[in-house]
């Protein structure tokens, strides 16, 4: 029978604890924790067949794109049912115009914005909240730029838990804030950055009985890694050449790298794609640390319109570095202007996303222009959030344009003149 443990990631420590432990960090050295496993030995063909057969099952955990792959996350006691809302099952969409724009690559987009609350966070939150329920937690909490908090609030409501979120004052989109409020979360707005809110959350959790569900919680990583399993299944278990992700707190690349390594160890996958992290230029501590091969120097005042990755002190950078080294990965940064252009190009393919997601396409274009990505490469861009997550951004960049919209009286002649002014044939 498969067994699960919490293991310190620091190479000189490696302390192992039971999965019921509630601290988000190693008790001995304060490093990050992994959920590690002694897996049952199942033939790769049998695993793939089992996962495929579950697609036709009426069971709620089989309809989940996380729990359908539960052989790779066997940490819940058999007496605890997962807290699920049918997350996962997100589309893999070809993006030919975007691929040509980026430099003649064969591009597809894995759109995690199709999850229940509109972002990839749901994949981690179903696992994280289920683990919290298994240890009888009552209050969950997070610091957030928006997506984590709305996902936490929804899954906490589903599980009957209280939810508290610390967010930067005026640093979260109204759409994301509205989601969390509707699901019943209690909101504390912090006059400062995400990093200020995250630091305050740690201090608050040490004084009160709060279960932190940010991506330093290792169970978040377990849920998020299933996105890459589903992606590979959609591709017939053929790995792309590059898998490109936006980089904020770096939990997503940490998760997908872990999932890839586990699939390879089980014999399900015979080749690893190269992982690519793309950060916004104004919030790029990981890019700078990777380029210098040094440790991460936090950015005190991160600046980017892509609010989901406006993070100056990424908590998961040690895990992210480990996964990039394991896959011969790359790190790039792009400007807000480049993100805006990439977002518009994706829209021309009918693919909408929040600004942080478009950083992936901008990063692919930059890597092609510098020769670090070859032409005709097979590339999958991970889109992390729905376009309606940040409608303020769209209205700022598109809604004020006179070539896009106008106001008229209810008159057919005026309507015809409007079509001419808007250059509609």
Q: Specify the structural class.
A: alpha/beta
Per CATH, the architecture of the domain at 92-116 and 220-399 is 3-Layer(aba) Sandwich
* Mean pLDDT across every amino acid position: 94
Envelope shape? globular
Summarize the SSE layout with pairings:
Blueprint: E1 3-8, E2 16-17, E3 33-38, H1 44-53, E4 92-94, H2 96-103, E5 106-111, H3 121-134, E6 139-143, H4 147-159, E7 162-168, H5 174-182, E8 186-190, H6 194-207, E9 211-212, H7 218-224, H8 226-234, E10 242-246, H9 251-265, E11 274-280, H10 285-292, H11 317-326, E12 330-334, H12 336-348, H13 355-369, E13 378-383, H14 391-399, H15 412-421
Parallel strand pairs: 5-13, 6-7, 6-9, 7-8, 10-11, 10-13, 11-12
Antiparallel strand pairs: 1-2, 1-3, 4-5
Provide a descriptive summary of the structure in words:
The protein is of the alpha/beta class and 425 residues long. The mean pLDDT is 94. Helix 3 runs parallel beside helix 4 (147-159). Among the domains are: 1-38; 92-116 and 220-399, Rossmann fold. The strands form three sheets. Strands 4-5-13-10-11-12 form a six-stranded mixed beta sheet, with helices on both faces. The protein is built from 15 helices and 13 strands. Helix 5 links the parallel strand 7 and strand 8 (186-190).
List the main descriptive attributes of the protein structure presented here.
425 residues, alpha/beta, Rossmann fold, globular
Give a brief outline of the structure:
The protein is an alpha/beta fold and 425 residues long. Helices cover 39% and strands 15% of the residues.
């Amino acid at each position: 029978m498969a067994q699960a443990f919490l293991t310190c990631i620091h190479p000189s420590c490696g302390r192992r604890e039971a999965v019921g432990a509630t601290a988000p960090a190693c008790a001995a050295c304060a490093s990050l924790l992994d959920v590690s496993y002694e897996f049952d030995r199942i033939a790769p063909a049998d695993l793939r067949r089992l996962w495929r057969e579950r697609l036709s099952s009426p069971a709620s955990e089989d309809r989940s794109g996380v729990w359908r792959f539960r052989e790779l996350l066997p940490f819940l006691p058999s007496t605890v049912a997962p807290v699920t809302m049918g997350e996962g099952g997100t589309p893999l969409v070809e993006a030919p115009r975007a691929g040509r724009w980026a430099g003649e690559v064969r591009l597809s987009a894995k759109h995690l914005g199709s999850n229940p609350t509109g972002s990839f966070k749901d994949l981690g939150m179903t696992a994280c909240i289920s683990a919290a329920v298994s240890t009888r937690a009552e209050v969950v909490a997070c610091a957030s730029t928006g997506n984590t908090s709305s996902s936490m609030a929804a899954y906490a409501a589903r599980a009957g838990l209280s939810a508290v979120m610390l967010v930067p004052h005026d640093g979260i989109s109204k759409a994301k804030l509205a989601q969390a409020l509707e699901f019943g979360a209690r909101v504390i707005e912090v006059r400062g950055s995400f990093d200020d809110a995250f630091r305050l959350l740690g201090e608050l959790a040490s004084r009160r009985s709060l279960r932190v569900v940010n991506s330093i919680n290792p169970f978040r990583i377990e849920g998020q890694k299933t996105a890459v399993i589903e992606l590979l299944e959609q591709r017939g278990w053929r790995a792309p050449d590059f898998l490109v992700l936006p980089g904020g707190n770096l939990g997503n690349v940490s998760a997908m790298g872990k999932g890839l390594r586990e699939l390879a160890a089980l014999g399900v996958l015979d080749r690893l794609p190269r992982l690519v992290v793309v950060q916004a230029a104004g919030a790029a501590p990981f890019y700078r640390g990777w380029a210098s091969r040094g440790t991460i120097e936090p950015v005190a005042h991160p600046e980017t319109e892509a609010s989901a990755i406006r993070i100056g002190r990424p908590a998961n950078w040690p895990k992210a570095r480990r996964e990039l080294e394991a896959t011969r990965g790359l790190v790039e940064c792009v400007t807000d202007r480049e993100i805006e252009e990439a977002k518009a190009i994706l829209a021309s393919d009918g693919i909408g996303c929040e600004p942080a997601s478009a950083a992936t396409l901008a990063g692919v274009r930059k890597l092609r222009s510098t020769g670090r990505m070859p032409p005709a490469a097979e590339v999958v861009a991970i889109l992390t959030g729905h376009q309606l997550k940040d409608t303020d951004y769209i209205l700022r960049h598109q809604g004020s344009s006179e070539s896009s919209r106008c106001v008229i009286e209810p008159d057919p002649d005026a309507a015809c003149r409007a079509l001419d002014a808007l250059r509609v044939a």
